[in-house]
Amino acid sequence: MHPPADADARRAIAPVICYPNDSLPAPDLALYRAARDGADKTGEVLVPPRDARAFRVPAGHVFRISPVEGPQVGDLNLWNAHDLSERFYSGKSRALHGTHLTTGERMWSSFPHLRPMATIIEDTLSWYGIDQYGGSVHDVIGTRCDPYTGNLLSGTQYHHCCHSNLTRALAYETGMSLHEAEPHVHDVLNVFMCTGFTRDTGQYFMKASPVRPGDHLDFFAEIDLLGALSACPGGDCSSEHSSDAAACHPLLVEVFAPQPGALDGWTSPPVNGYDRSHGR
Fold this sequence. Notes:
Layout: H1 7-11, H2 29-37, E1 40-47, E2 52-57, E3 62-67, E4 74-80, E5 83-87, H3 90-97, E6 106-108, E7 116-123, E8 136-139, H4 147-154, H5 162-174, H6 178-181, E9 189-197, E10 204-207, E11 217-221, E12 225-231, E13 251-257
Antiparallel strand pairs: 1-13, 2-12, 3-11, 3-13, 4-5, 4-9, 4-12, 6-7, 7-11, 8-9, 9-10
């Protein structure tokens, strides 16, 4: 197909941000960080390599994800602890904040709730920024490695990809069967994963994560949360995932409770105020 005569002019039209976020309610990071600094650790969960574990975080508490032995990425799902139909909405979080999340940005929940579930209050990899390839860290563009795509592309039956790991973790935590749990597993926050899109073909790429032991990502729980984290079979995702070939390491989830009075004046965000009449 030959380009039209005005092709260059059409390409030169300046982009417009779809969802200007200046009017988003701003988190009180100073309050959240002060609450974290005085908090007491109440529990931890160690996520084994190529597996997942569930954890619970009450509203107002902080949870931290960190690698403990070597570079490792994780796939994170969040649900309302009392209603699994309210879950992390990666697509809307991407639309509101961008392809990768960092300090001060939020994990938003699904319709019709659309409210903050968790706020990132510290990211030790925030220095990475966007590299020469367009890569950055903690993406909301990849869906999670899964056995269905593996089967589609290579005919494999691999059972320790993040989708399956999260399914097992949720089923174990809730008592649901695997078939009951699987529909609740959703697109993830790819914690510590370094990703982007190629400039020429627009394909999703991954590269070696810059994370190292000592790094961490801290989240403030805006509502009562049930979480599940998978230690991806891709390890640091420098070569491949959905196989047992990569070197993999555990991930640690720690939960911290603020001191009494540390969050005076703070309340958990209400569900979205849209009246749901949909024009009727």
